[in-house]
Structure formats: C-alpha cells, structure tokens
Here is the input.
Amino acid sequence: MARGLGRYIIIRALMIIPMILILYTIVFFFLRVLPGNPILAVVGTKNIPPEQLHHLEHLAGLDKPLYVQYYDYLVRMAHGDLGVTLASPMGKSVADYIKLRLPATIELTIFAFTVSVLLGLATGVLGAVKKGTKTDTAMRVYSIIAYTLFIPWFGMMLQYAFGIKLHWLPTSGRIDPGISFHAITGFYVFDAIIQGNWPALESVLAHLVLPSLTLGIVLSGAYTRLVRNNMVDVLSQDFIRAYRARGVPDRRVLWYALKNAFIPVVTLMGLQFAILLGGAVLTETTFNWPGMGTFIMDRINYRDYNSIQGAVIVFALFVGLISLIVDVIYALLDPRVEY
Amino acid sequence: MRIIDYLLKPLRGRKPGKGLLIFGLVVVLTVLAMAILAPVISPYNPTEIGEDLFAPPSWKHPMGTNNLGQDVFSRIIWGSRVILYVVAVATTLSIIIGVPLGLLSAYYGGKTDRTLSMIMDSIYSFPSLILAIVIAVVLGPSPINTAIAISFVYVPTYFRMVRGQTLSLKGQLFVEAARALGVRNREIMRKYILPNVLPTVLVVFTLSVADAILTEAGLSFLGLSVTPPTPDWGYDLHVGQPFLLDGYWWLAFFPGIMIMLLAMGFAMIGEAINERFSLGTR
Amino acid sequence: MLLEVKNLSVYYYTLSGVVRGAEDVSFSLREGEWVTFVGESGSGKSTVAHAVMNLVPSPGRIVSGEVLFNGKNLLTLSKEELREIRGKEITMVFQDPMTSLDPLRKVGEQIVEAMTVHGVPEDEAKERAKELFRRVNLPEDRLEYYPHQLSGGQRQRVSIAIAMAFHPKLLIADEPTTALDVIVQDAIMDILDGMKEEGTTIYFVTHDISLAAERSDRIAVMYAGKLVELGTVEQIVENPLHPYTKALIEAVPDLWKEGEVRAIPGYPPDLRNPPSGCRFHPRCPFFREGVCDAEEPELREVEKDHLVACHFPGGWRE
Here is the structure.
C-alpha cells in the first residue's frame, strides 16, 4: 500500500505543473503584454534619456521579443530565479525578497487556519447536535455573518476595541520594535522558541492574536455550514444507531460521527486555502503585517511588474502544494480511497 | 411571472429560512433604492469639501463628516452606486461568458473541453482577490475596469457549475431521445439543456454575488477601483483607517458596515433560495 | 413475560405535520419464541421495533406508553442503565448492511468494541470475535477488513455476530434480509434460528408475509401505525381474522397455481391525518358504514391467543 501512496503523490504533484504554467501565462499576458512599456510605468514620465531607458529595459529583459521573454523567465523560474525588481530598489533579486516575506504570511496563515477550523468544527457540531433548535439557527446566522464580514473592517473594529480602547493587544507589525530579537527562519514563533527568547515569544504571539482572529473568524463561516450539514447526515445514518444499539457511550458515538463527517471537510480545507491567501492580503494590509500581501501591494505602487509576477507564481506554487497535501491527507483518512 | 411566484413562495408559511429571506430582501432593496434615489435623498454633495472637519454624528450630519469635511452619509448614499454598478456588470459578464462556455465545452467534449477545463480549474483554485488585483492594476483604476477584473475571476465558477450540470444532463435519456429523433445540437442545447441548467445558475449567482461584493470592496479598499473624490465604500474605509487611532471612528465604521450589510443581505437571499431549490431534508 | 409493550405511541414531528407513526400498540413476547411483525412500508413495524430500544430517530419521539423488559420500563431508565442493556441483553440488527457499519473502521475493531464497552477485556474480546465469526460462517481473516470490502451478506453476518456476542435475551432484527438475495437470506435465517435454539427471543420485522410464515412462532400484523392482528403462525395463515391480514395472505403468489396476483387496492393512508375509526376502512372490502368509520376497533382476543382489532373479525365467513 505504501508504494501505491508514493505513486499517488507523484501523480498529484505532476498535476501542479500545468496549473502553474497556466497561471504564469495568464499573469504574463496581463503584466507584460498589456501595459505596453512597464518601465515607463515605473519611471512615470517620458522625459528620460533614451540610453537610460534602453539600459533599464535591458535589465528587465524587455528588449527581447515577447515569446523569448516568456520562455526565458520560465527556464529561470525552474531554477528558482524569479527575476529582478524593476523599481526602487532596482535590480534586487525578487526571490530573495520573497524569501524574507513568505514566512510571515505562512505563519499568519497557519494560525488563522487553525482558528477557522476549530471554530468551524465547534459551531458546526453544536448546530448539528442541536438540530432544529434556536441554537442551530444561531449557528447558521453566525456562519453567514462570519463569511460576509469585510476583513479590513472587521480587523479595524477589533483593533479599535482591543488595541485602542482596551489597550490589551498590539495592532500592527509582528513584534514589538523595542524587543531584541534575532530571526533565523523567518517564522518568528519558531525562532523565538528555539532561542529561548521568551519576551520575544510573548510579543510575537500577542501580535498574532488580532490578525489571526480576524482572518480565522471570517473563514470559519464556511466550515460551520459544511460541518453541520455533514454531521446531520452522518448522525442520521444507520451505523450511528447501530453503535448506540451496541451500548457504545454517547460521547464516543459523537466522536465517530465527527470523524466520518470530517472527511469532506478536508476537501473544503483545500478550497478554502485559496480564500485564506486572498484574505491574508487584506489582513496584512490592515495590520501592517510584513508578508507577501503587503509585498504585492508595495510593488504595485511602484509598478514593479517583475516582483508581482514572481509573487503570483509563488502563490500558485503554494496553492498547488497545499491541495496536494490535502489530497494525500484525504486518501490517508478515508479507507475507501484506492491508491 | 411564475418565477417571481415561485421565489415568493418561501415568504408564506412558517418556513425556517423566512427570517433570513426577509432581512436580506429588506437590506438589498434599501441599498438599491439608495442608489437609484441618490440625487434626491442625498442631503449634501458628497464630494463637496466642507469646513466642518471630523464632525461626529449629529442631526446635521447623521454619520458625521470626514477629513475633508465631506458628509459621510451622503458619501454612503452615493457610494452605493459604484458598488452595485461594478458588481452588476461583473456578474453579468461572468454569466454571459461562463455559462455558454460551460455548456458548449461540456456538450462537445473532446480535447477542447479538457484544456478549457484545466484552465478554468487553475483560475478557480487560485486566490481570486490576488488575480483580480493583478488585472485591476494593469487595467487602471476605474469602475468598468474593476468590473472586468472581477468578472474574469468569476467566470470559472459559472463555467464549472454549468459544465458539471451539462455533463450529467447530456447522458440522460431525454437528451438521447431527442438526438435519436434528429434534433439539431443547437436546439438540444437551447431547449433541453439550458432550461435545466438555469436553476443552478441562479443558485450560484446568489451565492457568488455576496462574494463579488466583498471582492469589489477589497479592490477599492486597496485603492485599485476608483479615484478620489468619487464616493466609494471600500476606498472611504481605507481613508478612514488611520483616523481610527485618533478616535474618529465614524469615517471607517459606516462604509465598512454598509459593505457588510449589503454582502450579508445577498448572502441571506442566496441561502433562502438555495434551501428552496435543494428541498433538503434538513 | 420477557417483553411487555403497553400502549406505545410514537409520533414524528416533521416540517409538514405530525406523523402518527405508531398508535397505542400493545403486545408481549415470551422467552425463546420467534415473533414476526409484518406490514407495508409506513405501517409502523420498524418504528415500534426501534422504540423498544428507545432508538427512535429524530424527528420521532415516543409520546406515551411503556416498554417493560423483565419488569423494568426501558423508557424511563437512566442513560447508563440503558447502555448496559443495549448490546448485551437486547441487541439489534438493522436493515441496510451498506450503512449499518462504520465505514472508517475495520469490522474486527467494531465487534471487539461491542464487547469491551461492556467490560470484557480486550484479548478475551478478540478471541470471542474469532469464535463469533466462525458461528456466522465468516472466515477469520475478514476481521481485518473494512466494511466496503465485504459483500452485503457478509456485512449482515458481521452485524449478527456483533448482536450475538452476549447471548442476548432479545434480538430485534429489522428487515435484515430485505437487501439481500434469497440464498443469503436463507443462511441468515438459519443463523437466527440457531440463536433461538439457544434461548434468544427473536423479534423479526419484515414486509414479506411468506418469510414471516417460514420460521416464526407467532405473527403480528401492523397497519397504518396500529397493531391489527396477533396470533400463532397457524392461526394467521389458516384462519386470518382481519381483512387486511387475509388480503396479505392472498396476495402471495403461489408458484404452483395459476391465477391472478391479487393486490390490495388503494394506498396506505397519510398518517398526518389518519382515517377516522378503523384506519383500514377506506380499503376494506367488508366496510360497514356507520361502524367502521366511526369507532376505532380495540384489540380483542377472539380465540385463544389470537387477537384482532376489527369490528367484524372473520366476517366474510357468513
């Protein structure tokens, strides 16, 4: 069975490649083909000596025909080279920048994801167990309110309440600027722990609370509904009654039901991940979080299309990886899946 | 007219989704009225710079004034136009492109279908906001461009749904029978498949409008949708954020809550319609 | 009396109204006997069977009545006491083998668990599991299988093996063979027969009256939520006293005789609004106006151990 799993993983992994190619092509079309001369967009005015213009164009690889650009970038991408920045500061490796920013986004995403799943499970199970009652309706309303919350607004309200009025939690950044801290991997929580830097850990965790809650609560809404509906389905199935008829205690029956109901939820997690990343952009902007989201927005201000392209590719890769992981987890959890 | 009757049915009788539906309709219709009647009901000119800066909510200014002395309430009223316009255009475009494409692709199958599917799936699985951001940046800030950006991102949603439905309908007996009778493909699609696909489109529509509203708000919050001084909820929220620290909460609060209410309104209608069509045993 | 059911009523509170699934049902079961409950879908036979173990699925609820098992009312027991009885003294086998086993766990785990929850140590349970599988003619290696890897008949045998783990006093079998083919059906019935010989009372539910006649000692006929006739197999088959029972028996096609298959005209009633008086009267060929539609007939003993709920039992023999 293990060899089957290995093959399953490889096949799924290969499917990521076409997806990245397609997204690369779409983004290439929009960023290189449409705008005309991206350099001019960056520089702003047209009053620039032609030699300088040509030099910049050469730097950006824009003096070559489009299809060459397309192919070149592709080859370099396969080697991990995502080109150079086109503006302020110019000529720096995009990949290096991304390496600095990506961990911040990943850390935020992990915490928000955890919040969303736990909240979703709790509210979903509650709604299912109390099916038909006011609690059930309340959970439904919760789920609708949660997923229609506008992330920046919700984040701001939390900032206002907990940061400004109550002074309990910080409202921006990843760590208190005053605390001495040495980043190794870029995952601040991890770094703080392995260095035994407890004041830093405290600060980092405190900074994570509001952004994770904002993003987590908004995303939990989708889970609530699915978990509740699945649980209701599962709870009405014969084997649940069979368990009870055998004298298995109620708590344990509920746990078994949850395990059954959970499996389709795993699939949802994969889909939700894309929404999570989109939401991360808004969250990072609201909370001044130095991650990929704010990176993209910064680069947009400078019209640095190269960086934007690189960032999109990294996002695509990320999404592909996560859906691969989700597929594998699903296959492992459900004995009915064949590999 | 039967459609309206059919849709209004949930309002009669003690059905569980009734409260949701009513709330949703009230909100959506109010905002719609706001947009249509803006010139009539708006107390001030939303772009007129006033002298009374940062005035808290009062009888004179029910939602206060902002950093430029503009009346927030008026900006809210006029702002409804932008968001409704963008979402309406975007959704219409998505449907016009996505539905026929899905139908044709699924019906004729083959390599084209497989390729198209793969492309649509790739776009669908990518974070929609980020893609919309990229497109909006390139096209430039204006409501119609925002609409195009958003529509691009939602085409796969409609495509996939319609394609799935068409695939399952294609194999059903009544379609086979029609073909055996020699009915032309175009007619089959128009008369047999399309009417059966439409209810699903309606459900997808209601569920994705709320999403589209939040995407539009996201784009305008990030400054990619309109240019000042056009009143726009998302943009006003963005402007209002720094002033939150100083305690001037009404600049950010009102635009934000309007976004949320509008999205919620559509979402609730969507839920109610979804229930009605699914006829679940829940 | 092993089991005494008194005036049991079960209603389903659905969105479209209150469905009176079982109304005022009373009967008793003795030790070591095989009683089969027959009826159409919706007759309430499954409902009553589930109610005995207090396992009525929502939106159903037991509104009134008592279920006395060895004198104790199961409906008022504490959760713990009920849990002890379930799976040990009273066990149940369900209709659909596809859905009555947890798809995520190996069948061996499930049968072992059925014993460990009642205090049996794990190794002993594992040994007993092998023995139980032998008794139902399942190869031992199937213990490591997942439900979806077994056939319907095998799955049903697993369920029965679980149900016989503690030599229950009462086994409730809700249409256990309906989803299976005839040959497997026979094998299953044989296993149940074996259990009866060891002293277990079999409470069997089916819509197939010929199956009921095969192995039962007594037959109970249900219609529209009411118990309409109860008697020994001979009494029911040779001398049915309720028009519905008579029609059921006559509806069974005889392999060796020519002739029409006689179906019962009409449809089972909507239990949200059951017919007035005798619930069978709209379909009864012997309907007498003023009586049958006015008053509900009580279940009365007409001859020894033969009870009928009809105003004119056996009235056609005149």
Notes: Chain A is about 75% helix and 0% strand. The interface with chain C takes residues 131-132, 236-239, 241-250, 256, 259-260, 333-336 of chain A (CB under 8 Å). The two ends of chain A are 7 Å apart (CA to CA).
